[in-house]
Automatic annotation (TrEMBL):
This is DinB family protein. SUPFAM superfamilies: DinB/YfiT-like putative metalloenzymes, Pentapeptide repeat-like. InterPro entries: 5peptide_repeat, DinB-like, DinB/YfiT-like. The lineage of its organism: Bacteria, Bacillati, Actinomycetota, Actinomycetes, Propionibacteriales. Residues 101-245 form the DinB-like domain. Gene3D superfamilies: dinb family like domain, E3 ubiquitin-protein ligase SopA. It comes from Nocardioides turkmenicus.
């Protein structure tokens, strides 16, 4: 256990660092960027919190004694009524959600194709480029459908892109240097989408509730029991939110394009 007192650690980077159980007193966390980090059971008192942008999975968040979780969820539903369809409970609901996602992504792809292809490799505010986003969604489908549901121990394609904070020793690809064209990435993505569609169209109540354990040698997801419903729900969540982020960033790229 280390102790830091009156030291300047500004500009530091903490990768795969365990700070659980730490205490921060009179510390400056201004202009800090936190990505892919667990913030479970955090208590902050006497803090000054303003100009803060938080995105992620939010649950049991209390600000000045008020749980804002339900408010945030309701406001998101008000802004995006179709978001509720991303939480289906039966086979028909999953089919409807996947149909909707394919339609929405078709519109997003049309929008992307109107840009200079070079801009599709450009990151906005440090987030994934449009091409990287599609590569990550291919990884998500390989993980939760090919591997977790289908049992494939090696579902990966060289263009698959895991989350940035993924460990390096799991055996899946993570090449950030390649610059495939949109059509190259879409060839992989469409093949993966077709597999999801086959799974969704063949769902029954029994199949949805069935448990599956991903093969350990795949590296991801972890080899523990998941229901098929859990796996498909993760795919829907990934598809919805990454499209939302892509639309946000495309609007910025469009403003830069002559």
């Amino acid at each position: 256990m280390a102790e830091f007192g009156k030291e300047d650690l500004s500009g530091s980077t903490f990768d795969w660092t365990d700070l659980s159980g730490s205490t921060f007193r009179a510390a400056s966390l201004s202009n800090v960027t936190i990505r892919g980090t667990d913030l479970h059971h955090v208590k902050m008192t006497g803090v000054e919190l303003y100009d803060v942008d938080i995105s992620g999975e939010i649950k049991d968040v209390r600000i000045n004694g008020v749980d804002v979780t339900d408010y945030v969820a309701q406001e998101l539903m008000r802004r995006e009524p179709d978001l509720a369809k991303m939480r289906p409970d039966d086979p028909a609901g999953f089919a409807e959600a996947w149909n909707l996602l394919e339609q929405l992504w078709d519109g997003t792809l049309d929008r992307a194709r109107r840009l200079d292809p070079a801009l599709l490799h450009e990151q906005v505010d440090g987030e994934w480029s449009f091409i990287e986003t599609l590569r990550h969604l291919s990884f998500a489908t390989a993980s939760w459908v090919h591997c977790a549901i289908g049992g494939d121990p090696a579902p990966w394609h060289p263009l698959d892109l895991p989350w940035d904070e993924a460990p390096d020793d799991k055996g899946f690809p993570r090449d950030r240097s390649v610059r495939p064209s949109l059509d190259e990435v879409l060839e992989l993505r469409r093949a993966r989408q077709a597999v999801v569609r086959r799974v969704v169209e063949g769902l029954t109540e029994e199949a949805l509730a069935a448990e599956t354990v991903p093969p350990e040698e795949a590296g991801w997801p972890p080899p523990r029991p998941f229901t098929v419903k859990e796996c498909l729900s993760i795919v829907l969540n990934e598809e919805w939110w990454h499209r939302t982020y892509a639309e946000r960033d495309l609007a910025i790229l469009e403003s830069r394009s002559p």
